[in-house]
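chain below, 477 aa
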Amino acid sequence: MVASKRRQRKDRMIRQIAWFHRWLGLATCVIFALWFASGAILLFQPFPALSRSGQLALARPVDVAALRVAPAAALHRFPEATALQLVQRGDVPTYLVSSGQQPIVIDGISGRTLPPLSLSAAQAEAARTLGANARVHGPFAYDQWVVHNRFDPLRPFYRLDLRDDEGTQYYLSAVTGQLVQRTTARERTWNWVGAVLHWAYFTPIRAHFPLWDNGVWWLSLTCLLVALAGSVLGVVQMLAARRLPRPALTFYQRKWMRWHHLLGLFTGLFVLTWMLSGWLSMDHGRLFSRGQATAGQTTAYAGAPLASGLAGMPLAALRQAGEFREKAFGMVGGQLITTTWDGRGAATSSPGLSAAIVTGVRAAWPQGGSPQLHALAPDAFYAQAEGAPDNALIATDPAAQRPDLIIDGRDGHLLTVLNASRKRYAWSYYALHTWRFPGLVGVPWLRQGVVLLLMLVGVAFSVTGIAVAWRRLRQSL
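prediction:
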């Protein structure tokens, strides 16, 4: 009797799983196919971006001869500011004060706060940078290619259309006067069926981060559960087929159902791990660490307010610095660090940056011993997982009393707190979803071939699901 009840509960549970997989699979099988297909495209065509060196090559040199406001004077109304940049915005040397969500723009000649660039100023900048043929559109807050929230402090934008054979377009921040994005017609075309489709980067949705974040998270979780339910059913049906008088892997006779079951058996592990890692790409601190320092740790790492560090910098020191495209000021370990960028994208930092970083790390994480600072190889797993710049540093603790820290080697900016949770996230999401495993990264053609093959198999498996779902839908209707 007990065995009979257990059997009934098991059969009822399997029927419920089958119902869930059948009807939710009917609604999501097209999404599976689109994710696999767009993932294959994304493998070869990434989302458009303007490199740091490309941005600086187009920027004007800062007119230090016209500068009348010292860095400390630019900060006197903003004592809470944590970073300061000196750039050239149009004809005016300009300070960008990091204080809150959007930078405060200070005229380096008059000391006044500047409004966003006007259309006529944007047109003048387009003509100077890109030539008289450039056409200016805007201003506007959002566009498909500047929809990411990292662009939020720079809104609104002007789009500068080069009207060349490649369909090149640049995006000019009306706030800072900097060119921050570049696309071509080819990139835009492929990204519509690649990154935009894969990440659900449609402007009306992506422009509202909570809507996009929660929507894609729940959709990914639903698809993961559908895949999990299918895997359970596939194994149950396979075991049943093995008990037949003539054992087989499947007892399905209809073509599409047979192929769906067989492909599911052989690709189930990959589909599950890829859906799991894709879902985790939307984690954003839900299950794993975001890799960010606390406010207290950030303050301790700086060691002193920026205003105090700038107090002893005379205006004459900037005028004698020679030609540069950008100069950044920040505090690390109680020391003022200046980073100067030239037109080739090369950066020159203050002497003693490494010592200041060590001091800042010990102040922010006092429980450890003396941290060791090393260059982080660009092809290192955690460097790629965190998108670290080529000259990043990593601070490690031999006694393992503090987490590893990824730090920008140009200005000492703290990039990632690589604690145990963040490391688990890198393996659970980044490694499983991109297949950038140590060893494969060094052989790009092999990694791309493996991933492309897996994506194509995923598309084929999804197509069988679409065929089965379409047949089921027709029968139901």
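Residues 37 and 241 are 32 Å apart (CA to CA). The chain has 16 helices and 14 strands.
thats it, cya
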